[in-house]
Amino acid sequence: MRALSYAYGTNHFSQDIVLQDILRHFWPQFEAHEADLTRFGAIAGREVYETVYHVDHDAPPVLVQHNLDGKRIDRARLSPSHLALLKALAFINRPPYEGDSWHHHFAYGYLIGDPGLYCVLTITNQVAYAIHKYAPEFAEWKEALLSGRAFGATWMTEVQGGSDLGANQTTARFDGEVWRLSGDKYFASGAGLTDYAIATARPEGAPSGPKGLALFLVPRLRKDGNLNFHVRRLKDKSATRAVPSGEVEFADTEAFLIGDKHLGIYYTLENLTVSRLANAAGAMGIVQKALLEVMQRVRHRRSFGHALRDHALIRRDLTDFAVRHAGGLALTFQAIDLFDQAWQERPPHSPKYHLARLYTHLAKTRTADHAAHLTAMAMELFGGLGFLEEYAIARWHREALITPIWEGPSNIQALDFLETLMKLGSVDDVIDRIAAPLLGRSVPGGRVVVSRVRQEVAALRALPRPEAEWQSKSVLRTVADLAQAASLYRLAETAGERYEKLGQLYLSHFLDGQEYPSWAFYDSSVWSWDSRA
């Protein structure tokens, strides 16, 4: 691997000053866990990095549908190193359920970076989450999930609806002892690996649309030990090969109702909030992997008589990397911090929870944009080598391209953003809370930008629904950019002047549409990975 990657064998936590500064700012218990994260950073840079490359290039999951006796088993066969690593990493899901925080879990997920590997851990976590909050009678299954003895999955998507859960056709009937599900799930992450899934289905007599859905816990095996569902096939994907995604068929599948059957859509949306935060953390983790490769490349490679990092246009690109990475990661952990404060609420949720959900839509959408853009730039900075699959850098762009799609693409995030926005009171209160660091100090252009965003959001809320939907994605990205600039200025209060500079650059570039100013060329604290102001 050393011949194929600059980042392999290095400590991915120790090198990440931005992550350290952000965790120190948002997580009061960070210093008590810093040594643990340092140990994990070494694992992320060696065992994780090596295994995900191996899975992607040499050993993707394979579906084994029958055993020697011809009996359907529908199991995904994984590389031994892949399976061993998944079991070894199961502990990352424990912190929130054992008195620790979501900051800890998502820091682990970010350091893993690979979205396929982290997806398996995330969907396992989501099943544990549903059991923990709404089905505690299955605590034994939760422990199996958290210990690595079992894997979970979330199966919501159906072929006729995609992100439109209200179009789901899977049905549920109660036979007096258990619920029985019938239908198909078309994008089923973890197919063939899953021991316990959560799935949406419509009970008999329930209304159409999303509010008629209930949430169910589905074990792989029936009570009699036979297979409870079938895996039709695994998908042939561009990337994220470390998660076996497939199609699952339910036929009188035994299932257990989670919570109140009338609240299934609310449980599902709550679960999606967890996975959208994981999507944001994973997207920025991909960015960091690409950045680790790029920073070594621009140090080692020379062109036109100079190291790449000494050229003005390279420093301009590194500035873009630094601004987007710090802004996206700060926004992600601000969303995580808000969720950590509200996650134990139950429906109907409070404004505090809806604010966390709003931040989640902002973070999920914009971090995916950053990941797709920056990994493409990383390939370009490597030149021809960046397009060769044998080296580490090309894969990160393929991996990044799933992040805008998973857990609801930007159109769905925009619609959910619009719906959440309507629940949060006055425009001024919402925007002022998001932009508080830009209003409480002398930020160049800050008040003008905040005033403009207030007007855009107020105008959005006043539009007829079709016109509001038309504008919602643009406004979502504007509010997300405001939140990122504000998060960087907020971070500067504890982590120093570098983040004020990055906040200034984010504000002027993304909200004022200006090119990055040339003073950044001379300021290595902006674009260098190992410098502090």
Automatic annotation (TrEMBL):
Residues 264-417 form the Acyl-CoA dehydrogenase/oxidase C-terminal domain. Residues 9-148 form the Adaptive response protein AidB N-terminal domain. The keyword Oxidoreductase applies. Pfam families: Acyl-CoA_dh_1, Acyl-CoA_dh_M, AidB_N. Keywords: FAD, Flavoprotein, Oxidoreductase. Its cofactor is FAD. Residues 153-252 form the Acyl-CoA oxidase/dehydrogenase middle domain. The keyword Flavoprotein applies. Belongs to the acyl-CoA dehydrogenase family. This is Acyl-CoA dehydrogenase family protein. The lineage of its organism: Bacteria, Bacillati, Bacillota, Bacilli, Bacillales.
